[in-house]
Amino acid sequence: MLLLLMAGAAAVAATAPTAAMAAVSSDRGGPITRSEVIGRAQYWMDQHPPYNQQGSAPDAGGDFRYRTDCSGYVSMAWHLNASPNTQGLPGYSHEIARDELRPGDILNSFYDHTLIFHKWEDDHGGFSYYSFGGGSSGVEPPGHFRTNINNATIDGHPNGDYKALRYDNIVEESATRPHPYAPGRVTSGRSADGRLEAFAAGTDGVYHSWQTAVNGAWSQWRFEGGPRNAQLSVAANADGRLEVFALSDTTFDHMWQTGVNGGWSTWANFGGGGHRLATGNNADGRIEVFASNTNGVFHRWQTAPSGNWANWEGTGGGPATSRLALETAPDGRLEVFALSDTTFQHLYQTGVNGGWSAWENFGGGGHDLTVNHNTDGRLEVFASNAGGVFHRWQTSLSAWSGWEGVSGPVNSELASDRSVDGRVEVFAINGSTAAHIWQTDPNAPYAAWETFGGGGTEITAGHNADGRIEVFATSSAGVYHRWQTGFSAWSEWGWVGTSAGPGIA
């Protein structure tokens, strides 16, 4: 997926990400996600404070000042409630093997220097990192660099002096409040124990396959019954139980896990028929479901976390027979995007767990859409039409850019997910080709499209408990998947389990 880099004798400057802001969602001294650590590291790189061991500078939230040197940089990125030196950082972390390094971990030389690991760049030990005060001068400003884990020196200091450390309060992205899973004829979600579960719509009902171990192999497909030729969506209840929603042109049904990581209920009716659906979670954990039909967009929500359901209500309009997508704003408010053949609109919660705005125009009509969020929390929306793929993103948390083309397969089905370091990756498939693009760094522009496979009918993406993206695609022959074998390489396409599953035309 990423360009392979030659391992040089010394670190070289990497292409800098372009962050608009740094994510500020952790409490000082508390748990923090890997993507927020990287976002905070990028913030000081953008602010460019001068190196001064007696000086200090504020973090993105402005609630604390950290010493402007290498260990102060780590302390700021980890959002510590202190600014220890390199000898003090082991008191906030534990040692790991070097091959376990992941975004937000550090390499720490006890007496001399420390740096923030970003990501592996190739299969030969190349990696990128953030550093302050390294290099030949020892007073370099915050920067983003590349080197090789096998080099004699790393950032100007002997390789053998470094130990790999992991912050004790680091939180894997999968443990944070879940963002909505993408709906479609094939969809997936993670059980509370981290295993992915996939669902696919057949002409005779819904099929189901699941990982038999976390990050592991897949079961055979099991026929679950339910609506035929349905649109599917998965959401997690506040207690961790997954719930599956299936909408056909004649009925809307749902089923749910009867226990955390457990078996499944029978299908129960959830409403009448419709066109498309999407599900998400309120900040308090209550599931909210949206569906479109020929009269517009409607919604229904849990009245208590993991509890009963309100009746269906209209949303005040919305495009008829539209494709739907949900995303979660940084403060927990849900936002809904609705794309029909002729118009694109959106609406959003006016308060956390609260009511909804009126529908607003978001663009012209199109074929399909996907929405995701940047490391700094800003939402980014992609849509396809006969001209290719276009995107629009928040320039702040209350304003949007204009539409911008990124080329790509025309009239394609779209999906997106995020690498463990927070980079958005977009997947597109039409009848003749599959392709993908990815951010070159968190919050950054995108690389050129790269072929990802042959043509098909549907595509969706999720990620394993260890952060590796897994992509599912369908054709009339069945359901295929492809997954990251590391953070810079992909498997070949293969069946889910050892069988084709339902063909989806």
TrEMBL record:
Tree of life domain: Bacteria
Record bears the keyword Cell membrane: no
InterPro entries: PLL-like_beta-prop (IPR058502)
Assigned keywords, A-Z: Signal
Record bears the keyword Cytoplasm: no
SUPFAM superfamilies in alphabetical order: Fucose-specific lectin (SSF89372)
PLL-like beta propeller domain location: 191-395
Residues making up the signal peptide according to the UniProt record: 1-22
Protein's recorded name: PLL-like beta propeller domain-containing protein
Organism: Streptomyces polychromogenes
